[in-house]
Structures are given as structure tokens and as C-alpha cells.
Amino acid sequence: MKDEIAAAVIFISRLIGKNENLNSEQLEEFKARLAVLLCQRFENHWFPEQPFKGQGYRCIRLNEWDRRDPSIELAAEQSGLRYEDLRLPPELTIWVDPLEVCCRFGEHRGSYCTVASFKSGSSDDYINFIAEDQDKQATVEFIMRQLCASEEGNNGQSVHRTNLNTSSYEQMLTKFGACFNRPQQSNSTSRNDRYHWVKKPIVQT
């Protein structure tokens, strides 16, 4: 579950990362808070043997009827941010399921893409980012630390924060409607690097 949540959090953070109203500290705090909140939200609704069970509860959805996701809204509040400053797309759906994270921009004729897939169980796992290729492994490890520290955070203690080199992406989706394809597999990928899939560049079409 932690891998899938980490992928979802990074994906969301990349959507809002170029917002000039947010500084790097606020973005890091938001990622940490959101990771913990999603972990708590999914804890009793995660069924690896039945990936689609509980999917509606785990779905992060924004549209004209539900303009705010409660977990994102609370993470923003805990980070000292206004929800409006996140500038998320008006129609966005993210499915966080066992072994796969997918998203759709738009509702009825939206663009669908896979954010991350862990189904192969091998070194071919990957993630797609709306970002230039950077030190994404450090970003994932940071979020994983927040998930592991969630129990400590729930006891009223501060969540550890780490400064990361996670500068904002250069290109935003055109009207949040572009799709991305899976990067080409590389035989040189090390199987010892658990988060190697984070480093793969995005392929745009």
C-alpha cells in the first residue's frame, strides 16, 4: 500500500508543484501530511487479493459536484495552505488500487493514463510523472518515511521533514488533458534498487 500511496502523492504534488504561491517547504509539508492521511484513509479498505474492492472509497475525485477531496483539503489545511492555492484541475480522478495507480483528467471524455504499475513484481515497475527527470528516488524515500512515521505523527509529535531537491516541472499538461505512455524498459536497471522505477523519464505523445 505504501508504494501505491507514494506514487499517488508524488503525482498530485507534481500537479501543484509549479504554483508560484507555494514554496518548497510548504510543498514538502503537504506531501508528508497527504501521505499520512491517505495511509489512514485506506488502512481498512485495502484488499490485495481483490484490487477492485473498496475502489470507490480509495478514489480521489474532483469534479463539478465534488470540488474538494477531503484528504487533500485536510493536508492543505495542516500545511498552512489554502485549498485554492493548490490550483488542481477541475476534473480529476485518481484510482489508488493494489499494484496500480491510474488517473483520468476530465469526466465523460477524459484522458486516462496509468500513473504507476507494480503488477510485474520485477524491475520493470514504473511510474509516469508530469515532470522533468530528477532525483525522484529521494522524493519517494521521503514520502515513505512519512508513511512509516504516521504512527508517531498521530501521537501528536511532529513529522520528520527532509529538504529535497525537488524543483518544479517545466511543462504543465495542456488543459490537463494529455496522456502519457509507459517508458521503454531498460536492461541496465538494477534489481537491487527498489525505487528504480521512479527514475525513468516520461514519454510524451
UniProtKB/TrEMBL annotation:
Segments traversing the membrane: none
This protein's GO CC annotations: cytoplasm; nucleus
SUPFAM superfamilies listed in its UniProt record: BTG domain-like (SSF160696)
InterPro entries with a match to the protein in the record: Anti_prolifrtn (IPR002087), BTG (IPR033332), BTG-like_sf (IPR036054)
Domain Anti-proliferative protein: 88-107
Pfam families: BTG
Family of this protein: Belongs to the BTG family.
Protein name (record): Anti-proliferative protein domain-containing protein
Species this protein is from: Strigamia maritima (European centipede)
